[in-house]
Amino acid sequence: MPLETNNQASFTCGDILLIPDFKEAVVLAGAGGMHRSINRVNVMEVPDVIDWVRPGEFLITSGFPFRDQPEAIADIIPQLVEKGVAALGIKTKRFIEEIPARALELADRLAFPVFELPATTVFSDVVRDIMERVLVTEVRELSLLQSRFQKLSQQLLYGNGIEEFLQTLDGMLNNPIVLLDATDQLFLSPQAGLLEQAANVELWSQLRIETNLGVSFISLGDRRIRVYVSEVNDKQHEKCLLILLEWNQEHSIVDQLTIDRVGILVGLEMINANARREVELKYIDQFLQDWISGRIVAMEDLKLRAEASGSQLEDQQQLFVALVRWLNGKPVVKQLQQVVKKLRSKSLREGLQFTIAEGELIFLIPVSAQHSKQTALDRVAADLRSVIGSSTAFSLCIGNVASRPDLVCESYEEAKKIHHISTICNYEEPYVDFKRLGAFQLLYHLPHSEAVIQYRDQYIVPLLEYDKKHQSQLYETIRVYFKYNRNVKKTSAELITHYNTVSYRVERVCELLGINVDDGDDILQLYLAVKLNEMRPVTL
């Protein structure tokens, strides 16, 4: 779709020819840049004027600085373009006869307008005529900006929140608007909601990371478009972005100023909305914590609290608890709170609940006929990973499915116990339940007594002492050997050693401990000793 030219543009180079005093002026070159905006006039009568020019200036000269070197005009044109100067007007016949062809060719190439001014041109008249029109245009733009600001202020004061506000702003600017809050939640104006890829959070969050505020560019679908990025003036949410897409028509300066100004209003509305939301979420968190801990005993009370929190519970609804165990460093409470906020800003699975209880992140997951328990866990893990990133490792400690909502506390207690056991055993599988813990769930309950220690040491200490003396890997080999259910091929693959070497080491272990590799009781006792050592390692 081609962009329309914004009819709210400021005073431009093309408007110069409409001024009566410029009826004899001629555009010698750079006609492709006649849309450039002019916001002031400057007179150049010294050679070092390039140090003093400003963006948007119409620079005029009698040609005096070039009287001895007219070709120097070509040298200064690229510098003027780089400085953002709008156009150059030169009065000929007095100090220079004509503008060199090379300068005009360069101006054409850079779309930089060069005007030939008549010899009778009075510079004071030029400054007065242009600045009068610039000021009139600016007053008109300021009036439009003020009108927009007042209308949008009333919109937020008496309207229905951010969504309706964005709808009004969308209509005013005739371009899509995107609001990205601090938790990466997206709010789209009506036009933005219709665009392909507009709901892609990563697309907009990259602007926060990679670009400065102001004009930037993004790829949306098969189009490369210009966007104007402004930071919402909200001290509680410093990285909220308000983004104007140049989709239907070009941005005008007033459009960009509108986005900057209304950021204050958006910030105030977000503070109010977040304050209301914080109160609601505190109530929801308290309900979830009371629910999973078993403090809500009666099913009717549980239903009432759930309904007040925005969810519905059925008598026979099945749920289970998954407790997150962090494998490479547990986040502090504030970081966990941010994780919960980001999770809540996403469109997560229906019926899924989560909160922080006893310093841990907990998911309450419904069981449905459409999706298996494993599918539900995979989705929860994917949602969590999308929020915390792939570098943070975790496992989900899973309680058994509760047959009724009022029995969820039992699933929570099981999840806590699994979390504790897997921490002691350093068990790092993605999903951990009692079944996956295997012998650990039994060994965990053994007291840390002298008899248990002696049992472990009679099998483990000889192996560790031998490894220390001979620089071998008997203990590690037998540990991996049991890990793969005595599969020599898989054991050799993990240890990156030859198949025969693993077989020799297993035989050496049995010889050293005086046990028979083919005797089930002997192998079971060694297996239990290895598991005990994984829970509470021997220190030599």
In short, what is this structure?
By secondary structure, this protein is of the alpha/beta class. Helix content is 49%, strand content 14%.
Q: What does this protein look like?
A:
The protein contains 19 helices and 15 strands. It is α/β, with parallel strands linked by helices and 540 residues long. The strands form three sheets. The chain has a five-stranded mixed beta sheet. A hairpin with a 2-residue loop joins strand 12 (353-357) and strand 13 (360-366). The longest helix has 41 residues, at 253-293. It is elongated, with a radius of gyration of 37 Å. The model has no long low-confidence stretch (mean pLDDT 87).
**How many strands?**
15
Helix content: 40-55%
**What does the radius of gyration come to?**
37 Å
* First-residue to last-residue Cα separation: 75 Å
Low-confidence stretches: none
- Main β sheet profile: 5 strands, mixed
Structural class: alpha/beta
Q: What does the overall shape look like?
A: elongated
Question: In DSSP terms, counting alpha (H) and pi (I) runs of 4 or more, how many helices?
Answer: 19
The fraction of residues in strands falls at: 5-15%
Average pLDDT taken over every residue: 87
Strand order of the largest sheet: 1-5-4-3-2
Key terms:
single chain; 540 residues; alpha/beta; five-stranded mixed sheet; five-stranded antiparallel sheet; 19 helices; 15 strands; 14% strand; elongated
Outline the secondary-structure elements.
Layout: H1 13-16, E1 26-29, E2 40-43, E3 57-61, H2 72-83, E4 87-91, H3 101-109, E5 114-117, H4 123-158, H5 162-173, E6 177-180, E7 186-188, H6 190-193, H7 201-210, E8 214-220, E9 223-231, E10 241-245, H8 253-293, H9 299-308, E11 319-326, H10 333-345, E12 353-357, E13 360-366, H11 373-388, E14 394-398, H12 408-424, E15 431-432, H13 434-437, H14 440-443, H15 450-470, H16 474-483, H17 488-495, H18 499-513, H19 520-535
Parallel strand pairs: 2-3, 3-4, 4-5, 14-15
Antiparallel strand pairs: 1-5, 6-7, 6-10, 8-9, 9-10, 11-13, 11-14, 12-13
Helix pairs in contact: 2-3, 4-5, 4-8, 15-19, 16-17, 16-18, 17-18
